[in-house]
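Schema walk-through. Below, the input block comes first and the output block second. Nothing else is stored per chain. Lengths vary across the set, and this one has 248 residues.
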Amino acid sequence: MALKVEKGDGVWTVKFNRPERMNAINEPMSVELLELFESLRRNEDVRVVILTGEGRAFNAGADLKAGGTPEALRDGPRGDWRLRDTVKAMRACPQPIISLVNGAAAGGGLALALASDIIVAAKGAMLVPAFIKIGLSGSELGVSWRLQRTMGISAAREFLFTSRPMNADQALGHGIVSAVVEPDELMAYGNQLATEMLQAAPDALRVTKRTLDAALEMPDPALLMELEERSQSSFVRRNIRQRKAETS
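--- output ---
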């Protein structure tokens, strides 16, 4: 299998599992990725997802060396469709996604990291857009959307135009990652984040993720506050019902 999925109590840890190819994306991996994240949309037992890579890399992007073989990532409409829909499925699934970048995150691998909610990098990790250096547009799979909102217009465009690698400390300075830790502490850090998130009410993570995404799109803060109030009211009503049930 191109993915390794470890199913814990409320937390699934998903690992890219092609360490011999720096976890580069081939056709089987693209199929498994889309199926996995689409399946999570209606899964109420999974509340947090951790995404990382086996071996020395997070994900090196498309496996260009697989060209001409059955495992080659199909380019053109079919390949773009599947990876694009995977990124969309990652945003649509209700669970917060924590990406633990344990090495290179390049091209499509960077796009997958940026599609998560929280990114933590190990010291020595590198972020590389890669697209423009292989004759493609520098912006693909939603990378430009998140980077311009995170880094600002000038810094994001310099990053994508030049495809200059960015190390973990630089990514922290730009706000792309929330923390940089020692490589041997990365998984423990991610597990601790997941454990803290599990202290929330069952639906709280789902509603918070949805509201945070909506906040990035709403031009009027008043509309956002209305959405937040409606969401919060549902939790208040539920808590009142639970207290009444406990005292009856």
